Amino acid sequence: MDSKVLIDECNKAGVKLKNSALASITPEERDIVIDYLKQQEQPAEGAKDQADQAAMAPQREPQKMRTIKAMTSRPQPSRATPKSKAEDDRPESEEEGRSSVAVEQDEEEPQTAAETEQAAEAETTAKESAETAEAASGPLKRKTEESPKPPEDEKTESEQVISRDDYVPAGGAPTSSIREMKPIGSPRSSKPQPKSKSKTALPSVAAPPAYKQPVIPKPKKKEEKAQKPEVRLTADILEQKSPLAAHLAQHTEQKKRDKDRDSIDEDSKQRRGSLSLVEARKQRREQRKEGRRGFAAEGGEQQEVVGRRPRRTKRKHDSSNIVHKTEAEVELPMTVRSLSEAMGRPAKTIMSILFKEFGEMVTINQIIEEETALAVAMELGVDLTFKKQKGAQELVEEIMEQEDAPEDLVTRPPIITVLGHVDHGKTTLVDTLRNSKVVEGEAGGITQHIAAYQIEYNDHKLTFVDTPGHAAFSEMRSRGANVTDMVVLVVAADDGVMPQTAESISHVKASGVPMVVAMNKIDLPDINEQKVLQDLTAQNVLPAEWGGETEVVRVSALKGTGLDNLLETLLLTAELHELKANPNRPAVGVCLEGFRDEGRGSVAWLIVQKGTLRIGDAVICGKSYGYIRAMYDDTDQQIEEAPPSMPVKVTGLDSVPGAGDHFVVVDDIEQARELAEERRHEGRTDTLSRHSGGPRTLEDILGSAREGAIQDLPLIIKADTPGSLEAIRSEIGKFEHPEVRVKILHEGIGGVNESDVYLATASDAIIIAFHVVAEDRATALATQEDVEIRRYSIIYEVVDDIRASLEGLLRPELVQEQTGRALVLQTFSISRFGKIAGCRVLNGTINRNDRVHLIRDQKILNQYPIASLKREKDDVKEVREGMECGILLSGFNDIKEGDLLEAFRINEVKRTLDSSS
């Protein structure tokens, strides 16, 4: 009971206490409180008995929440068990019910016989009613398993007050308990209070569930075994031979052999123990001999004999009848194994020859050189030939040189190249034939790119290739002459044969193609046709009207006069030469020009010579390769295929091909990639060797130090086409001077990018952009880094600016200019300055900044600068002719009367590349 509740009960009983758990009371007050508490418990117990009687009937009660009582605690389930056993079997826990706030009783009250009988009858009645309720309600369980309590006046041990320490909840033993508050005796009472022994509180354990013993299955009766069917032996079965007989016979024979071997082993063991070592050795030898004799007597069949296994002699093959090879063919690269298989000799023989003759220890899979293989073959008497594997270059050349069957050839349009001097009207002639105005789009009115067009005249197609006429585009003219079937040489009637005209004639003669001369500009008033014919004759081109083989057609490209005659002549010439090609073979042709387009990427201008080029073909063109993704004609219309003699623009190559490169359609793109990589490697090697100029010796270094370092002009060139790069490079190569040179750091196709600017920053180079522009970021970076980007559209300007830059790097030439002469009349010695010469100016003027030659006895002793120039006592800058002055020379103090002073100044004169060094 809680201390606060106990204090309240004490106050109700008339005992006034303080509100403290440690308040002390006297024994008399204690008895009063105990009597009061017992009176309060009687009505509660009576109500409980009535409830137990009512619970005897089996009925379902609604679930209720248990209320916590203040005075009494719920009895433990262990006390509610019926008293069916003797008093000795009563649980010990029934004697431990005490109140936490009550005073321990000194003596327990004895139980009477009537009380015992009454408690037994109550327990029996409760048990019977519980069994009846369980049988009637089935699964319903009653919570009233506690035994009914007797009346208050008949007390038993089970009715004693339960303390809070004795209560054990359903979840197990409590982890903590409320401290027991024991009353302290009154100081007036000297009687000592006995102390009770503390006992452990046992937890309440739930009743174990009903255990159902496992049912042991009864053993089944033994079933009778199935009887095998009786198989009767017939006469036929008995007559047949069973394989068992053979097995039994073999088994019997094996047992007999084992028995004989065991007996022999036992005998040998017995003998071995009694024989000496020498006798035992002799016995073993005899046994071996007997074994060999027995083996030979049976015709070579192996027998079970004691001794070693007989040796089997190997048959030696007679090698004298083997015919060795005298000729062999091996494919390169070869190994020792492949050489051995080709010559029909063992590999160890070849390896031994290599070791003896050459001192080389090789393995069977090691690659050997051709010379070594020839030496081995000569040693073995074999005539060895090598079969080289075809590389990518050989395969491409084989495709290009493949001959076509005559029945596969069909007539193709002629390819005509227009050559001539600059401004003689080549592009205007082609424009008039095409009804276009290409010349208006060319910078400066001159052609700077090679181009190809196809026109149709009288149901016949003709392909024209327009080439530049400027001297810088000699390579383009050479390519145009090599790719063509015939040449139209344009000569202006008012100008005659010019240097580029003569060069074009040489290209035509080198290519061996027919030529037709178009005398242009015949509409001009001041023309001289005879002069033109004479100039052509001087170049070994004899006109047909003068008895030669070259046709001369007079035309006017601007007005279209005589163009029909020119086309008729070209068609007739093509018909005479029977131009044919096979359209059903892999395409072969030439790249006239290449450039990079912003939307299409790498674009190549190709002209097909043999076969038909189609979209999707794998192409190798110089250092570029790829699949043809799109094709466009000369009018920029997309087409699917290009027959022979048709110029097309193609896209799909991995890089811009070089002008003049031949292209071939291949079956395997891997071959094209391999060949392109080889060509690129060779190109890089050539570029490095060209730029490096080879290793420098000590003499070269010392010579350049004596002569002065060579000034380099670093350039980065970006152009629109490889042909333009080629022309610029060719012009730059013409600038040769011992003191300056052009160093091309980088050249490429396309616009100027940031990497070009970074390279120019690191090397102080100038960027030349020909027909291209710089990117926005590159322009901003160039402004930030002070890099100069020069844009050009005409090749004249590029050449002139590069020339001017090179001449600016040349050291100026020093030229002495005489300004005057003075004669020394008298000398004056001054201690602070030295000897001063009093002179008279004979001619010219003497300036303060001039230098003078000291001439004595008609000999120039030396030259000295003027330290001081005075007239009387004033310093002056110059002294004119006929006047006198005083001159003090710097670094010379031995001037004499009669010496002649010749004044001069040094001028720097700009040098040119054409001037001598």
Automatic annotation (TrEMBL):
Pfam families: EF-G_D2 (PF22042), GTP_EFTU (PF00009), GTP_EFTU_D2 (PF03144), IF-2 (PF11987), IF2_N (PF04760). Its main location: cytoplasm. InterPro entries: EF-G-like_DII (IPR053905), EFTu-like_2 (IPR004161), IF2_II (IPR044145), IF2_N (IPR006847), P-loop_NTPase (IPR027417), Small_GTP-bd (IPR005225), T_Tr_GTP-bd_dom (IPR000795), TF_IF2_bacterial-like (IPR000178). Residues 411-580 form the Tr-type G domain. PROSITE patterns: G_TR_2. Residues 308-317 have a biased composition (Basic residues). Keywords: Cytoplasm, GTP-binding, Initiation factor, Nucleotide-binding, Protein biosynthesis. Residues 111-123, 186-195 have a biased composition (Low complexity). Residues 142-153, 221-233, 250-270, 675-689 have a biased composition (Basic and acidic residues). The gene is infB. It comes from Gimesia panareensis. This is Translation initiation factor IF-2.
